[in-house]
Write a structure and sequence with these properties.
With about 140 residues, the protein is an alpha+beta fold. It contains four helices and six strands. This is Peroxiredoxin OsmC.
């Protein structure tokens, strides 16, 4: 079992309040977040951005392992995750994570690439934890 942790500190009410997020690794250290960073584009982070980063990273690493098991090594894989936050009654809900992958993988054919990308899409731990629609647009570049 592997445990990872982060903590958040919040001061004030929901809209005017402010918080800071710190991760165990220190990559985020007292990173500001609040209503303005979540809904108004102010500098800082927000939970949806962090989920998007986690999903893009997890999926890409999962695909690297899928490729390795199948005897392939990517020259480069670039993944973007767009996480959608929608109104849900009086609150909000993450409803979608749209993954877009562009990969250069020598020697692989389109069918095998599609198979392994789909396996990574459904098999990565972050995909498994998300209670949201997950989509994947995967492009294999020649090279």
């Amino acid at each position: 079992m592997i445990d990872r942790k982060a903590h958040a500190v919040w001061q004030g009410n929901g809209k005017a309040g402010k918080g800071h997020i710190t991760t165990q690794s220190g990559v985020l250290s007292d990173q500001p977040y609040g209503f303005n960073t979540r809904f108004e584009g102010a500098p800082g982070t927000n939970p949806e951005e962090l989920i998007a980063a986690a999903h893009a990273g997890c999926f890409t690493m999962a695909l690297a392992f899928q490729l390795q098991e199948a005897g392939f090594t990517a020259t480069e894989m670039t993944t973007e995750s767009v996480v959608t936050l929608d109104k849900d009654g009086p609150g909000f809900k993450v409803t979608k994570s749209a993954l877009t992958l562009t990969a250069t993988i020598p020697g692989i054919d389109q069918a095998k690439f599609d198979e392994l990308a789909h396996a990574a899409e459904t098999g990565c731990p972050i995909s498994k934890v998300l209670n949201a629609e997950i989509t994947l647009k995967a492009t294999l570049k020649q090279g």
